[in-house]
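Long-time lurker. I teach an intro course on protein structure, and each term I like to show students one example going from raw sequence to a predicted 3D structure in token notation. This year I'd like something fresh instead of my usual example. Would anyone be willing to generate the tokens for the chain below so I can use it in lecture? Attribution to the forum is fine with me.
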Amino acid sequence: MSDDEWWRDAPAKPVIRVEDGVRARSQRGEIARSWWSRRFLSVLESLGLSGRLDRGKRYARQGQVLSLSLSKSIVVGQVQGTRPEPYRVRIVARAFTDEQWEQVEQALAGQAVFLAKLLAGDMPDDIEAVFDGVGLRLFPDDLQDLSMDCTCPDWQVPCKHLAAACYLLAESFDTDPFEILAWRGRGRQELLDNLRGLRERSGPTPAEEREPPLSELLEEFWGPPTTPPAPVAQPAVAAPDALLDQLDALPVIVRGKPLVELLRPAYRAMVEESE
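-- Reply from a regular --
Happy to contribute to a lecture. Here you go:
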């Protein structure tokens, strides 16, 4: 038995339970709900460390994570294990440079759908394609782009403490997808401000130039029309006195005849004169 394998036969110690730890919202099934958080967890699950990941998921659901905070490119936390002193975990993703983010922002600002979704607080489904287009990967594909370490004696990465932190991190991505972008080096407010600035500098689209905003049309909407409406074409009448047939019989008798019958010669005479 090598020195690195002594722990396999060592008696298991009970985990020190935590009363007020950070507990995963999902208590069964999958933890990640959104496509972007599932995409993040797929990197861990591709490593084939199912045993440690399962134990890490139980830690996350039991509330063994004492703290977890995310800043630019780094996530740090504390996880309570079998020892009295909590283990310190760190998950680091490579942050993009300002020049790289400028390329991403230019590409995002040029896509109206992406821009609208981001301004509404949503993560566009095809946002990975934008990063791919400028030669970047939004989500780490392997451990070469994702550095993790823990103060526990387990040499395998990720250990169950790191796995627990990753599952809670995925849940935080569900709540706020902008944390993924912040992890890569661009905070929410800075990104949105930059996108708005690019949008304003690029000017209105041709459609926006043709169509003024509704706020500028309120007086015209409620006021009289600026141009008279076009005349409505009247249907042709087969006979000049056909209109009289559509009226109810007038209860008027003149010289022993109904008024309608006396009016018919006049209607026919007017049509003949106009022709």
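Some talking points for your students: The two ends are 118 Å apart (CA to CA). The first helix runs from residue 35 to 45.
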